Amino acid sequence: MDKLIAFSNKTEGRDKFCKVVQYGSRMLKAMLAHPGTKERLQGLFAASRDARKIFRLWKSVHEYDSMVKLLQNAGLDNTQRALQFLSRLAFFFYWLFDNLAILSQIKFIKRNTPKLTKSAMTCWFIALVFTLINLLRNLAINLSRDAKFKLPSTDQNAATTKQTLDALKGARSQIYINLVKTLGDMIPAASGAQVPMKILGKNFSEKWIGFGGLVSALISCYQAWP
After folding, report:
1. Which of 14, 82, 93 has the alpha carbon at shortest distance from 59?
2. C-alpha 58: how far from chain center
3. Residue 2 and residue 125: Cα distance in Å, rounded?
4. Which long-range contacts (CB under 8 A, 24 or more apart) does 15-20 make?
5. Closest of 82, 111, 98 to residue 189, by C-alpha
6. Dihedral sign, Cα of residue 221, residue 186, residue 144, residue 85
7. Which of 13, 21, 100, 124 suits a disulfide with 94, CB 3.0-4.6 Å?
8. Which DSSP symbol is given to 75?
């Protein structure tokens, strides 16, 4: 399994780049007025979207491996383990439905493509909700520890306290970045799952969907850059 995961991980860089192209072209298409340009951007959006779906075949294997490792990780508290496990489980079904949708779209299997796509987007949205809850919980713990170490105490070593506060600050920066990335992804995920339609009676505009996905894609590229 490790060899399969290492092999399929080689597509991650291409996937992140195509995500930038996918959502960037989607946002531009909504902002520009020229019909010819809009048509070309639509073609670029569709091509990059479908290419990413091909790259993501077998991603469910990654999630299965992640869930197994989570259950074996003794360094996590029960709440953190549960939130991460539920997020990975939802991502498992997201990749599964996403894979079936593209296989149906290219006529490899005969299934209802729109229904599979909506199921995939719903699972993606649920996974992001659990991810968001976990990030907010980690942020609250981080801020609590930061406040505790900033309290004056004769028992604290100044050098050790500074190292701890620096580490907490670094971890907090990563949490903030991941929060922005998660919120960005939640816009297209919620739209695909039709959450705004059910709550507000209308979906997000193409411009906002493109913007949210583009922000998340750019952050992912930054994090994946060697």
Report:
1. 93
2. 17
3. 28
4. 15/52, 15/55, 15/56, 16/217, 16/220, 16/221, 16/224, 17/221, 18/48, 18/51, 18/52, 18/55, 19/48, 19/52, 19/213, 19/216, 19/217, 19/220, 20/214, 20/217, 20/218, 20/221
5. 98
6. negative
7. 124
8. T
d(CA 65, CA 50): 25
- Report the distance separating Cα 117 and Cα 19, nearest Å: 17
Q: How many residues does the chain have?
A: 226
The predicted-structure confidence for 168-200, as pLDDT tens digits, reads as follows 999 999 999 999 999 999 999 999 999 999 999
| Residue spans per domain, the chain | 2-224
Mean pLDDT along residues 38-59: 90
Cβ-contact 128, 186 below 8 angstroms: yes
Average pLDDT over residues 216-220: 95
User: Distance between terminal CA atoms of the chain?
Assistant: 24
Look up the pTM and report it.
0.91
pLDDT of the residue at 3: 67
Residue 7 pLDDT > 60: no
78-105 vs 113-150: helix axis angle to the nearest 10? 150
pLDDT, one tens digit per residue, over 84-137 is 999 999 999 999 999 999 999 999 999 999 999 999 999 999 999 999 999 999
